[in-house]
Specification:
Elements: E1 5-8, H1 20-28, E2 31-34, H2 37-46, E3 52-55, H3 61-73, E4 78-81, H4 94-102, E5 107-110, H5 115-120, E6 130-135, H6 140-149, E7 154-159, H7 161-175, E8 180-185, E9 193-198, H8 199-208, E10 215-219, H9 228-240, H10 245-256, H11 260-268
Parallel strand pairs: 1-4, 1-5, 2-3, 2-4, 6-7
Antiparallel strand pairs: 7-10, 8-9, 8-10
Helix pairs in contact: 3-4, 7-8, 9-10, 10-11
Length: about 270
């Protein structure tokens, strides 16, 4: 198969947030596989992109994979886009890409906008570690199970406007009203807003202000179960048994779910 399949990132809101390389690629391919052709058509019209559009979403990915293989065999150049942002980042495409790789198709990714990195770039953090879980489950028990799993790192998820307050109330009940979070809505758009505060303060804010648009949430790491003094005590005990800083970081991280890099830095000191 020729190297003529491209994964192309598109704007997450503001249509100007597209790279020159992405525009050039979309102009030069024969077909564009879209999550929704109606959405991609708006982008195509703005930038004079005339490639044929066809839908490729989570309900027809397997079927479309065969179509794309046939088009590639005919020498066609194909691009994959999602409605917004980078394909496969909480968007369809995994089934298609797996099929292409099994058929030895070389894939080229054209980088660009992504809601996760756009959100992170506006937030102060103590470490570079973060977990991204896509859309958080609707089930409140599952929400807490996931956030407990990642409570020692910054955790990002997407949520719909009509469920946001309910989800935040669930966090407040289970992790405390002072839990530090950030909420972003309408990133890159006219009414973009990023709020960083306690979960209770943000609940109260959005109870008074109309909530709409695309929502991203980050729950900041909350190491309230193991403070630094407790971690240092465990490090001291392991050092007395002649474990290295690297081994200590792995052991404590595995036992207590604490960030491994944080333990390693404490062990070195």
């Amino acid at each position: 198969m020729p190297n003529e399949f491209y994964i192309v990132a598109t704007p997450i809101g503001n249509l100007a947030d597209i790279t020159l390389r992405a525009i050039e690629t979309l102009k030069n391919v024969d077909c564009i596989a879209c999550e929704d052709t109606r959405v991609t058509k708006i982008l195509a019209q703005k930038y004079g992109i005339t490639a044929k559009l066809f839908d490729c979403h989570k309900f027809n990915e397997k079927e479309r994979s065969e179509k794309i293989l046939n088009l590639l065999a005919q020498g066609k150049k194909i691009a994959l886009v999602s409605d917004a942002g980078t394909p496969l980042i909480s968007d369809p495409g995994s089934v298609l890409i797996e099929t292409l790789l099994k058929n030895n198709v070389k894939i080229t990714a054209i980088p660009g906008a992504c809601a996760v990195s756009t959100f992170l770039s506006q937030l102060p953090r103590n470490s570079e570690d973060f977990a991204f879980i896509g859309f958080i489950p609707r089930n409140q028990k599952q929400q807490i199970e996931i956030l407990n799993k990642f409570k020692h790192t910054n955790c990002i998820f997407y949520e719909s406007p009509n469920r946001l307050i309910s989800t935040l109330e669930n966090l407040s009940i289970n992790f405390g009203a002072d839990l530090k979070i950030a909420v972003a809505r309408e990133l890159t758009k006219v009414f973009e807003e990023v709020k960083i505060n306690s979960v209770q303060s943000i609940i109260e804010y959005y109870q008074k202000n109309h909530l709409k648009g695309e929502i991203a949430v980050m729950v900041f790491e909350h190491n309230n179960v193991q403070n630094d003094d407790e971690i240092k005590e465990k490090i001291k005990l392991l050092k007395e048994e002649h474990y290295s800083a690297k081994d200590i970081s792995i052991i404590i991280s595995k036992l207590y779910g604490i960030n491994k890099n944080k333990v390693y830095k404490l062990a070195l000191n």
